[in-house]
Amino acid sequence: MAERKFGKVLFTEEQISKRAKEIAAQIDKDYEGEEVILLCTLKGSIMWIGDIMKHLTVDTRLDFISASSYGSSTTSSGVVKIKFDPEINMYNANVIVVEDIVDTGNTLKYVLAKLQERGPKSIKVCTMLNKESRRTADFHADYVGFEIDDLFVIGYGLDFDQKYRDLPYISYLEEDDIDKL
Ligand code: IMP
Ligand code: MG
Hints:
By secondary structure, the protein is α/β, with parallel strands linked by helices. The chain has helices at 13-30, 46-55, 106-116, 175-180; strands spanning 8-11, 35-42, 59-70, 76-84, 94-102, 122-130, 143-147, 152-154, 170-173. The mean pLDDT is 92. It binds inosinic acid (IMP) and magnesium ion.
């Protein structure tokens, strides 16, 4: 079967899976004997959270949240909207927000402030990718899959205009790639 190639491959499925396993081991160690609520940020984190959770041995419960600061372009609008709120009771719970990518940090800063209102025992963030050089918000990710440069990436859950989430690798797009899509 032909493989669909879009952009330049940055991380393969194998590399992502290996890194997820390492991070899961770290989470297991940090939360030994405790339960964790994994909060999947829709839609981009679906593949990454699957990789993380299947390797965890601590007890977990799963829920979803949807927040967005992006329109259909490659730049942030800066305005964050919560579109779907988790139903699970987070009072006194350990929460790990599992994110696809942290860019300016605006989205997560807002989301974390909202979640704090529910009185969790702790909140940490586990992101697949981190663009530290783009950060404008005062926000720190606790578990980071990979640090990347200021690139626009797609695949493995990440989209461009809601497409390419299904690619089994992470690739990056350059201006001329975007023009061809
Ligand atoms: P932030 O609020 O600027 O940190 O934006 C975070 C959100 O923007 C992420 O959760 C993604 O949904 C989206 N995003 C940021 N950079 C990229 C990218 O390179 N590719 C695809 N989506 C991105
Ligand atoms: Mg996201």
